[in-house]
Design brief:
The complex is a heterodimer. By secondary structure, chain A is an alpha+beta fold. Chain A has helices at 6-33, 58-75, 149-165, 188-201, 210-213; strands at residues 42-47, 50-55, 114-122, 128-137, 179-186, 218-227, 232-240. The chains are: A alpha+beta, B alpha+beta.
């Protein structure tokens, strides 16, 4: 197992910061567009030089921030050359995806701790009606040498924001009284790292239930895909066929 | 055929790609004029509505017209959804324009996505943002980078010239001298060149002399108008006293005044002044006393500026000005005569007191002056004072000769006062050395006699106090 250098940690921190910022904006925008909460609690803010909608409810904002704060250390492991040798696959429990995908991937096939970040919208019966899945992977060639890297990434993230804004056209209306939650698909080793932060932040994470994760007969609607030098991400929506039932 | 193509394009953008198609975005994407893009969108909406296709379209319109609010009429421009179009139109007194702004499948809750749609495409077409626009100006042509850098320099020079043109206009109105623009433009260059290089100063000084002769009348006539303008600049650096000096110079010595006025702009520039102090000495002698005054005014320390004997006459007026600055203490100091105190020092201390330094023949005139100013202030400040010291040696004849000379020392006001009190009782008229009176007279003439006493007293008492 290779050890992380300082440069790798800084790179990972940069990517984690960028991702967490974007995920925070995306969660707020999803809640606004899908009318999970009343429109009145949202106010227009500016991010990536474009107007976005952000909640001004303090508890909601704190919940979203704490959630992403716990996810951030997992995203910081996002670095080149992080070759892992893992133990055989082990299922943590119901509700988790197979935590470890394979054993001993090569040194040139890096893995990160976070596979997906999912924003799940639940109806009154706590059954998922929609899942906005942010699938995060490393690009094939990881580099930070480009001068216009961040501006290019900003442009791509702006496109994600725009796609979320117009996702109403391709999705059915949600039933009233919906709630939401956030799921993180990760590895077992990563959960141990998360436990430290959970204790510090007093924000416990629990294993997801089967019914929260799996959706019966979902409809897959791709929204946007981006590939940059530091990040590869795609956004798609899993929508339940009959939302009202 | 062409109509079909663009309609298919729009249909692909809206229906297949689920994009927000604004007229501006369409204009840049298809490379057509904005008015043509608006017409395209309108045709597409009309055809789709006629076809009654399953695809649901949401259209936004841009409405502009005169709007009366609180009795005031204003021109209002608004982007409204299709369902609110009629309501907005009814509020307008006169509807000037209505056209399709965007077409999209999703129903927009706010205008943020519209801005987001146009942001990237405008950013990528910044160089030719008005290429397909209906708002154009023939004079608005982008500059070449080389031209832009030269234009900046030209603008800077114009700004400098515009600052100088008021003075030029005054000269032209008076109708004296050569063309003022050349003079004024040459003067700063000449002065700046004087500060920059030694060789340039000599040639420029000769030019200045010729110019000063021609300008004497003009300066005298325009003194009133110039002085306030120059005075503001001077006062910022030197204060009112310097301004008074300049006015006196204008009345008395016009060549000197001319150089002062000419040198004021560069004096305001501290770098050239500080960079070449040697050049100041090599420049005209008339300018030196003025600069010396200005330097003294700036810093309270008594700077020693050596003046040759030839300059004594020229600095007579300067002395007078210095006296004005230094208030009455300088006058009182001139009246005192101190012949005897060196003898007392010799009698009490036959061995030469430490430390002894050789006498300095060109005694600077300005040394005691700043210290008197400090005494008048009554504050305990660190300053340099001329202290009388003695040096004993055997001359040719075999006599033990004690020479008295003044040497600058740093001390505080409190020490000086104490020394003056303690040394008052030690004075005696005895003079045992031939050379002493001459040196004393030389030194006393040039500075405050009280300070001379105090200096001598400082040396003796200071010696005792230190023990």
């Amino acid at each position: 197992m290779t050890t992380l250098t300082r440069q790798d940690l800084n790179f990972g921190q940069v990517v984690a910061d960028v991702l967490c910022e974007f995920l925070e904006v995306a969660v707020h925008l999803i809640l606004y567009v899908r009318e999970v909460y009343p429109v009145g609690i949202f106010q227009k803010r500016k991010k990536y030089n474009v107007p976005v909608q952000m909640s001004c409810h303090p508890e909601l904002n704190q919940y979203i921030q704490d959630t992403l704060h716990c996810v951030k250390p997992l995203l910081e492991k996002f670095c080149p050359g992080w070759a892992i040798t893992v133990s055989p696959a082990a299922v943590l429990g119901p509700g988790w995806e197979p935590a470890i995908l394979s054993s001993q991937p090569g040194p040139l096939s890096p893995k990160n701790d976070v596979e997906k970040v999912v924003v799940v919208i639940l109806d009154k019966e706590h059954r998922p009606v929609e899942k906005f899945v942010f699938e995060i992977t490393q690009p094939p060639l990881l580099s930070i040498s480009s001068d216009s890297l961040l501006s290019h990434v900003e442009q791509l993230l702006r496109a994600f924001i725009l796609k979320i804004s117009v996702c109403d056209a391709v999705l059915d209306h949600n039933p009233p009284g919906c709630t939401f939650t956030v799921l993180v698909h990760t590895r077992e080793a990563a959960t141990r790292n998360m436990e430290k932060i959970q204790v510090i932040k007093d924000f416990p994470w629990i294993l997801a239930d089967e019914q929260d994760v799996h959706m019966h007969d979902p409809r897959l609607i791709p929204l946007k895909t981006m590939t940059s030098d530091i990040l590869k991400m795609q956004l798609y929506v899993e929508e339940r066929a009959h939302k009202s039932s | 055929m062409a109509d079909q193509l663009y309609l298919e394009n729009i249909d692909e953008f809206v229906t297949d790609q689920n994009k927000i198609v604004t007229y501006k975005w369409l204009s840049y994407t298809l490379g057509v004029h904005v008015n043509q893009a608006k017409q395209m969108l309108y045709d597409y909406v009309e055809r789709k509505r006629k076809e009654n296709s399953g695809a649901q379209l949401h259209v936004t319109y841009l409405v502009s017209g005169s709007f009366i609010q609180n009795g005031h009429s204003c021109h209002k421009v608004a982007v409204v959804r299709e369902d609110k179009l009629e309501a907005v139109k009814s509020k307008l007194a006169v509807t000037a324009s209505i056209h399709v702004y965007s077409i999209q499948k999703a129903m927009l809750k706010d205008s943020g996505p519209l801005f987001n749609t146009d942001y990237d495409i405008l950013k990528s077409n910044l160089q030719n943002c008005s290429k397909f626009s209906a708002i154009q100006c023939a004079a608005a042509v982008p500059r070449v980078p080389a031209e832009s850098s030269s234009s900046r320099k030209f603008e800077q020079s114009n700004l400098q010239a515009s600052n100088e043109t008021p003075a030029n206009n005054e000269l032209t109105t008076n109708g004296h001298g050569p063309p003022p623009s050349k003079q004024v433009s040459q003067q700063p260059k000449g002065i700046m060149g004087m500060f920059a290089s030694k060789a340039a100063t000599k040639t420029q000084d000769t030019n200045k002399e010729t110019k000063t002769e021609a300008k004497e009348v003009t300066n005298a006539s325009s003194a009133g108008s110039k002085a306030p303008g120059k005075g503001n600049m001077m006062s910022n650096f030197f204060g009112k006293a310097a301004m008074n000096k300049l006015k006196v110079n204008l009345d008395s010595e016009q060549p000197v005044k001319e150089e002062k006025i000419v040198e004021q702009p560069p004096v305001s520039v501290t770098e050239p002044k500080l960079a070449t102090p040697a050049d100041l000495k090599k420049s005209s002698k008339k300018a030196e006393p003025v600069k010396m005054q200005q330097k003294e005014k700036k810093c309270n320390r008594g700077k020693r500026i050596e003046l040759s004997d030839d300059e004594t006459k020229e600095t007579g007026n300067v002395k007078k000005k210095r006296r004005r600055i230094k208030l009455p203490q300088s006058d009182s100091s001139e009246d005192e005569v101190i012949p005897d105190s060196p003898g007392t020092y010799e009698a009490e201390s036959p061995s030469p007191p430490p430390p002894i330094s050789p006498p300095s023949d060109p005694v600077p005139k300005t040394e005691p002056e700043p210290s008197s100013v400090k005494n008048s202030s009554g504050e305990n400040k660190r300053k340099r004072k001329r202290v009388l010291k003695s040096k004993t040696f055997v001359d040719i004849e075999g006599c033990i000769v004690t020479e008295k000379f003044y040497e600058s020392e740093s001390c505080t006001d409190s020490e000086e006062e104490f020394k003056t009190k303690t040394s008052s009782g030690h004075r005696s008229p005895a003079m045992t050395v031939k050379k002493e009176p001459k040196e004393e007279r030389k030194s006393l003439k040039k500075g405050a006699a009280a300070l001379g006493k105090a200096n001598r007293q400082v040396s003796i008492t200071g010696f005792f106090q230190r023990k």
